[in-house]
Structures are given as structure tokens and as C-alpha cells.
Design brief:
By secondary structure, the protein is α/β, with parallel strands linked by helices. Helices cover 26% and strands 26% of the residues. The chain is globular and about 40 Å long.
């Protein structure tokens, strides 16, 4: 069974969106290498529609190792409205999310990477389908957003087991957790 690994950037005040306000100043060679290694350790990506729209507008136009890897790997988008994806190697999961993702997990491969902790990730966490969470805690308060922009999700009560903590040279702390198996 392939694990689903979620990697999410988050500000100190819990914001996961509006990254232009708090995140990009912390991108450097060290973070680029770690994000490349995370992507290279998996053989597919899973994302919601908002992440897909952002990524599909950016990555196909870029050059380099990371863009080549992300553009060439299979991508799965959970969406009830996307019909004709333009980004290469993209498959739309238009049906019921949980069984569709369970089928992906059950297929052969090394792992499935998700970026961001939006509605799709929160639904998968509730269903017990996420295996790992890598929180990239940026040393900044975003000071923007509303409830949809927060890591917090009312009703999502899931236990995690700490795996590792890594402090980067720019002050970002990457905290890795395993999701507890449902009893």
C-alpha cells in the first residue's frame, strides 16, 4: 500500500494560504533541496482543485530539476468540476473522494505526495487515509485570512505520532508526524 504524505507550509498563526505574505522569503537552497527530495521519494501527487489550478499555471512554464520532476509525474486532482485538465499526466478523481483515493493507495508505487492542508487533505485525514504529515512551520505571523485559510478544522480530531523535528538555517522548523491508525 502506497503511503500518502502531506507536506504543508504554515505560519505561526496557523495560516496555510496567502503564502505571498509570509512564506516566500524563507525559500532557499536548503528548502529547495528538501522539497525536491520529498517529491522524488514519491511516484505521484494528489491535490485539490485550488492547488491544481495554481500549480498548473506555474510549473509547466518553468525549467530545472524540480519542474521536470513535477511535470513528468502522475498527478491526481480531486474535483467535481474539472473536466479537461491541461497539465500533462493529470487524472481527475471526479467520483467519491474516499474510495478513489483508497484505490490509489492500494495500487503499486512508492508514495503519493500532497501539498497543502485544504479540504481534500482534511477529508482524507478524517477518513484515515493520510499516513504522514510534514508541517513546515515558518517563523512568521501571516496576519491575514479567515477560517478557510487556517490549518485548524473544526471536527478534525486526529492523533499524530511525532517522527522527527528539523530546524533549518532560515528558522523554518519541519515537524514530521505519522497519523495514528484508526482503532
Amino acid at each position: 500500500m502506497r503511503p500518502i504524505i502531506n507536506a504543508t507550509f504554515v505560519s505561526l498563526d496557523g495560516v496555510i494560504n496567502h503564502m505571498d505574505k509570509w512564506h516566500f522569503g524563507y525559500v532557499n537552497d536548503e528548502t529547495a533541496q528538501i522539497t525536491y527530495d520529498q517529491l522524488a521519494s514519491c511516484d505521484a501527487m494528489l491535490m485539490g482543485r485550488k492547488t491544481y489550478d495554481i500549480y498548473a499555471a506555474i510549473w509547466p512554464t518553468r525549467d530545472g530539476e524540480y519542474p521536470e520532476l513535477i511535470n513528468s509525474m502522475p498527478k491526481y486532482v480531486a474535483s467535481t468540476t474539472l473536466e479537461s485538465p491541461t497539465w500533462q499526466n493529470t487524472t481527475v478523481l471526479a467520483g467519491d473522494l474516499v474510495p478513489s483515493v483508497q484505490a490509489l493507495k492500494d495500487s503499486p508505487g512508492t508514495g503519493i505526495l500532497m501539498h497543502g492542508f485544504g479540504p481534500v487533505a482534511k477529508s482524507l485525514a478524517k477518513a484515515g487515509l493520510l499516513d504522514e504529515l510534514h508541517l513546515w512551520l515558518n517563523p512568521a505571523f501571516a496576519g491575514v485570512g479567515d477560517a478557510e485559510d487556517l490549518l485548524l478544522s473544526p471536527g478534525l480530531n486526529v492523533d499524530l505520532q511525532h517522527r522527527a523535528t528539523r530546524t533549518l538555517s532560515n528558522g523554518v522548523v519541519v515537524i514530521s508526524y505519522a497519523f495514528q491508525a484508526a482503532e
